[in-house]
Amino acid sequence: MSEPASISSGIAKRYATAVFEIVRDNNNLAKLEINIADLTAALHDSADLRELINSPVYSREAQEAAIAVLGKKMGMIPSMKNVLGLLAQKRRLFVLPHMLTAMAAMIADHKGEMTADVTSAQAMTPAQTEALAATLSKQFGKTVKIKTSVDETLIGGLVVKLGSKMIDTSIRAKLNSLQNAMKEVG
Question: Which domains occur in the chain, in start order?
Fold first, then answer.
């Protein structure tokens, strides 16, 4: 991870932890989870919003005003509106994507859930996804949600990333391993 990304993640985690703890103590995690999903979708869909949070061209006041309107329109809980306003005041809106990811992870952990990023050579069927989720849930003792993506260069098999663990059963990895073994032999 690059140094600026590491700094952003650290700042984001501190804000995320503060909001999570306040909202958890007020028993409002379900609403926070909805706010996170909505804001994540808005960031994904809106180039203007991404520019607003990343561009130094916008003044603090412009960012604060835009974020206040966004918070009101999206029906955000007060804790979320307040932290977004604070981020705008401190010119730290650029950490918002990291903060949302950190809060989502904290909520998932609180609920006993984990998210597995699964990359396959072909799109997985719902039955395959459910079977993999059940297997991983049994192995890790938590409910596992699957996020899938397709990478045809894998040739076949899966790459599963779950927390700090990575399981690579792809044919590409096996071929690379075989190629390295053959190079060693000489």
Answer: 3-109 (1.10.520.20), 113-185 (3.40.30)
